[in-house]
Write a structure and sequence with these properties.
Layout lengths: L5 H9 L6 H20 L2 H18 L9 H18 L13 H6 L6 H18 L3 H12 L4 H8 L3 H30 L1
C-alpha cells in the first residue's frame, strides 16, 4: 500500500481512526529507535524510550499544530523522553571495559586492511559518542546520523541556533580528544 503522507494519517487519527497511527509508527520506528539508541547507548532502554515516545506523541497529537513537520515534532518528543529517562538515573554508564584494546587490535586481522580501518574508525566514533553527555550525544546524532539542520535541532532541543552550533563544535572536539586518548593507549599497549 502506498503511504498517503503524515498529514493524512494524523488527520485520520484525530478523526477517531486510531488504527491509522500504525502507519506513522511504521514510517518512523527505525528513526525513533536509532535516535534513542544513540542517546542512551542501550538497546533495551532505546526500545523502552521509543515506545514511551510514540505513546506520548499519540496522546499529545491533539496539541500538534501542523506548523512544523511531524518528524521534527516527534523527534522533539523522543529527545525529551530520552533525556528525561537518562536523568532519572536508569542509565548504565559506559566503562572503559566496553572498548578493550583487544577489540581494536583484532580488527587488523580482517580480510583487508581497508575494511579493518573502517571498522576501527566506526568503533572509535561510536565509543567517543557514548562518552559524551546526553544532550551532546543527541545533538551529534541529530546532525550527523539523522541529517537534520541546525534550525531543526534548535526546534527539537529548544536551544538557540548559535547554542546548537557551539555544542556541535564542542562535542566534536570532545570526541576527537577521546579518540586521540584511546589511540595513544593502544599505541602504548601494543607499541
Amino acid at each position: 500500500m502506498n503511504y498517503k503522507g503524515d498529514i493524512f494519517y494524523l488527520n485520520e487519527v484525530l478523526r477517531g481512526n486510531t488504527s491509522a497511527y500504525t502507519f506513522i509508527v511504521d514510517r518512523y520506528q527505525d528513526k525513533v529507535f536509532n535516535l534513542a539508541m544513540r542517546i542512551c547507548g542501550n538497546r533495551e532502554e532505546a526500545e523502552e524510550i521509543s515506545q514511551d515516545a510514540f505513546l506520548k506523541a499519540f496522546r499529545a497529537l491533539p496539541n500538534f499544530r501542523f506548523e512544523s513537520g511531524y518528524a521534527t515534532w516527534l523527534y522533539k518528543i523522543v529527545y525529551n523522553t530520552s533525556i528525561s529517562y537518562l536523568r532519572s538515573g536508569r542509565k548504565e554508564k559506559v566503562s572503559l571495559e566496553d572498548l578493550p584494546a583487544e577489540k581494536v587490535v583484532s580488527a587488523g586481522y580482517r580480510e583487508t586492511e581497508e575494511v579493518a580501518e573502517m571498522e576501527h574508525r566506526k568503533l572509535m566514533v561510536n565509543y567517543a559518542l557514548q562518552k559524551l553527555g546526553d544532550e551532546e550525544k543527541a545533538i551529534i546524532t541529530l546532525y550527523y546520523y539523522e541529517d537534520m539542520s541546525v534550525e531543526e535541532i534548535s526546534e527539537i532541543t529548544s536551544l538557540t541556533r548559535d547554542n546548537v552550533k557551539i555544542r556541535l563544535f564542542r562535542s566534536r572536539k570532545k570526541m576527537l580528544e577521546t579518540i586521540r586518548n584511546i589511540e595513544t593507549l593502544i599505541d602504548i599497549n601494543h607499541g
